[in-house]
Amino acid sequence: MHMQSTARSFARTFFAAALLCTLFAATVTAHAQSGVPAGRSSSVGSESPYKVLDNWNLADTGGWDYLLADSAAHRVYITRGDHVDAVDTTSGKLLGTITGLHGTHGVALNPDGKVGYISDGGGNAVVVFDRSNFSTVATIPAGTNPDAIIFEPATGTVWAFNGRSHDITVIDAASQKVVATIPVSGKPEFAVADGKGTVYNNLEDKSEVLKIDARERKITATWPAGCDSPSGLAMDTAGNRLFPVCDGKKMSVIDASTGKVLANPEIGDGPDAAGWSAKHKLAFASCGEGVLSVVDASGSDYKTIESLSTKRGARTMTYDPATDRIYVVTADFGPRPAPTPENPRPRPPIIPGTFEIIVVGR
Predict the structure, then answer these.
(1) Which listed residue, of 67, 126, 213, 346, carries a Cα 20 to 30 Å from 6's Cα?
(2) CA distance 27 to 84
(3) Which DSSP letter does residue 248 get?
């Protein structure tokens, strides 16, 4: 997804340095021409609902991948390569770190409030941790490079989506044992559960969405995503709608019963994650060009009502429904090194000490 070896390789997710600079400059220019200061909201047809409320700096080094908000505990988890940070969302301070990992991607939480699960892609495993003290309590073998990970409440299972072995590892949370391995036809990306026994998953390289019966542990439908290379995925469980975010500055709106594409609202460039506000009926896309796109899904028009300037590279997010706050992360980058035969797609280096969490709210 970001600074590590995932299905969303860094070379793909972060643009060439010159292009990034051009996009950022264009964003600033557009804001200036519209009379909206850089770093503030622009909206379409209504007052801008969201704004940047705070910026929190974390001193530790490393890349990042998924974020996950834990509303009840007032914290957000951030995967950071060989460790996972837990940050207090009331203060922005680091609460603790889960260490001893190899290449982390995602975090899932058990509703019991006691344990969480980390997809440790570099270790080909799911790591179970104690949420009270951030210690590791179990390591469960998974497929190759587990990436997205979710807890499926209807069956009490943990689902790890393996980016390189093209399959899904299903783990019984009570026994901490693998109970199924489900092959898929492409590279699985973000996933969501509807809470009633159905799981949905994006296949990024196939531009498809899978519908999976969690009880039977089998794929029941495969649908076109309606846009190219879907990465992030959010769900409106009450309205039974899916929101994949894609290349080409597009989000899809999909009927989760039939697979019909209902709309393709425009979003920012280079999205990776998505979110959903049930209270406000808004879908979010965090985009690498430095924009948080907000789509009004209260009716059938699906208009993008806001493009909030965040910061270049802030393309992954988590939404906390309890506080109506969105968290995105990024850092400052140095010049991209020249390509070599050994490293034809070099990554621009992170400038030490610049990693930050951007807090967005009303």
Answers:
(1) 213
(2) 32
(3) T
Among candidate residues 173, 60, 54, the one with its CA nearest the CA of residue 108: 173
DSSP state of 43: B
Report residue 333 as tokens.
């980058």
Amino acid at 177: K
CB 297 within 8 A of CB 241: yes
Convert the pLDDT of each residue in 225-275 to its tens digit.
999 999 999 999 999 999 999 999 999 999 999 999 999 999 999 999 999
Exposed/middle/buried for residue 241 (C-beta within 10 Å: 0-12, 13-18, 19+): buried
What CATH number labels 10-361?
A: 2.130.10.10
Among 184, 181, 177, 178, CA closest to 163: 184
DSSP classification of residue 6: S
- CA–CA gap between residue 77 and residue 217 (Å, rounded): 28
Residue 314 host element (H or E): none
Average pLDDT of the residues in 317-341: 96
Helices (H), the chain: 10-13, 17-34
State if pTM tops 0.85: yes
CA-to-CA dists, residue 306 to 26, 239, 300, 356, angstroms: 17, 22, 17, 22
Single-letter code of the amino acid located at 258? T
